[in-house]
TrEMBL record:
This is Alkaline ceramidase. Belongs to the alkaline ceramidase family. The keyword RNA-binding does not apply. It comes from Syrrhaptes paradoxus. It is an enzyme of class 3 (hydrolase). It is found in: Membrane. Its cofactor is Zn(2+). It is a multi-pass membrane protein. The chain crosses the membrane at residues 49-69, 81-98, 110-127, 133-148, 160-178, 198-221.
Amino acid sequence: TMPSIFSYQSAEVDWCETNFERSKFIAEYYNTVNGTTLFSLLLLTPLKFLVLEGLSLPLAGVFSTYFHMTLSYVGQLLDELSILWALAVAYSFWYPKIYFPRCIKSRKQFFWLSGVTTVISTFLSFIKPSVNAYALNGIAFHLLYLVWRELKKCDDKRVHRMAAVMVIWWLLAITSWISDRWLCGLWQAVNFPYFHSFWHVLIAMSLLYCCPLVIYFDVLYEMPSFKPKLGYWPSDSWPVVVPYVALEEPHKQC
């Protein structure tokens, strides 16, 4: 008989970590614990992201925790679809108008395009859930392409530095994800099958730098009367910092 979609280990994906090794109730202990990493972004996310991304990212953290705890089919889809819809929100509200398709004339039309595309993608995700994660990771290449295009027009060293740090965190994250997915036998042989839990932390760090970059470019396009400036709290010289965007209103000419 077909297992219940809510049953433990009914998902199409099982990560490298040994199941139920540390708890009889939690399938992947470390992946479950580190799945909550996205919760921390709610406290560190800049104000403009707080209402939408600040809610959708922690929600993705909730579903990630549930998925790795149960490895259920429903948990897998909730985990993946929450990420898809978080990306859809980000694209809908902060995708620069200059990159709109030629047939799109307004932000409202782009909302509809993003919404329809997301709904279709949601239904397609049920066909072969095992490929969903690869498709979601593929979106990162489009985001990196957009950042590269914006950096070509920007000579602010702080912006380039923040973009470089974001990419470094992302490279470490995607390397951990691929290692866990494709080299599981090797890591189990050396008794270290925890690279997917590293992915959770590393991708959260990459997002921590990505959000201020998105806000910076959004201010340039949507609030031209203000001059955005990237900074680090508590200080640029600290080894562990929280990046942020400050708005400086230019002095009016007499």
